[in-house]
Give the backbone structure.
Amino acid sequence: MTDEIVIIGAGAAGMMAAVQAARLGKSVTLLERNDRPGRKIIITGKGRCNVTNAVSLLNELIAAVPVNGRFLYSAFSSFMPQDTMDFFEEEGVPLKIERGNRVFPVSDSSKDIVDALYNAAKRAGVKFKKGRAVDLKIESGAVTGVVTEDGETIPAASVLIATGGKSYPGTGSTGDGYVLAQKAGHTVTELKPSLVPLEAHEGFCSQLQGLSLRNVSIKVEDTKKHRIIYEDFGEMLFTHFGVSGPIILSASSHMRDMEPEKYVIHIDLKPALTHEQLDKRIVKDFAENANKDYVNSLGLLLPRKLIPVAARLTDIKPSTKTNQITREQRAGLVEWLKDFKVTVTGFRPLDEAIVTSGGVKVSEVDPKTMKSKLVDGLYFAGEVLDVDAYTGGFNLQIAFATGYAAGTNM
């Protein structure tokens, strides 16, 4: 009987697990289908890698995981964001904290995070092996090895599935882990996109393609339940299909049971001003441009691309002179600026999502050890599990914490 540990997937969870297991004296083989490890880490945070979120309280961390957050209580307790930060700084990667407690390498390079994990694993004695796992060897209810695409069987006393989800398939996340889990008898819950751009009903989004709005606030309304389900402040982006950007991606993870026109995004383009303050500002702008056409008087108020849309949606003819605009029309403009609506028709495809919602059913996994309750010696970590969090470094923290728990207990 071998005492070899085989970890499938050299992403955030897999490499953290490998480092921890090897540091505890285990013989570890890390099986990765890509030529290089950490392909998905490289593209996170627009290539800067939002490595974790510097919240200090356990309940804040769990609150950032809307799907099965309580499952992570033990894993987070054993490996908090500060532990993640300590790990990378000890590996020679200085970190910085930005708005919303987001943690990035000072270098703004995700490659430094991948290199730190890889080098730590190599120093600990982890053996990296290129290959794609297609099956598990299971005998008498216990895992005994991993079968690769080439037909090779790698003997193993313990196996960790850390293959990621099904988003960004170009990075190797094509859902292999779900197939392996199901072959081992595990339930895989419905896979859906999370932290994903949104398609919109309105035709103006394509006109606004490429426009980034900074320092706006949004409220997401569930029109079926007539209530606001999410609020945020920050940056968003218009695309040819709808909307994207940090606050939109976060909002998407709150949209459950998506159907066309169920959700409306209310955008406050001027959140720092009350209705009254904004009206005074417009009166001042109009006074300074008294003989200008309405459409030519909005340059100080709105980005250039947004002006034709504003002119169309505010019931004021573009050629109207500003000194002829009525108080009622001005009130309509204020209301539009404070409540610019975008109607959501659906999510973009799963392969455009940052993370996959759904995965290996957590009731079939021991939350303290990440060990399968169905197959002895089988473990899961990272995005393959049915847990997903908001943007801001929380999903990588899940990967590191569950990887650490698995590596400690394998």
In short: The longest helix spans residues 394-409. The mean pLDDT is 92. The chain has 13 helices and 19 strands. The CA atoms of residues 93 and 113 lie 7 Å apart.
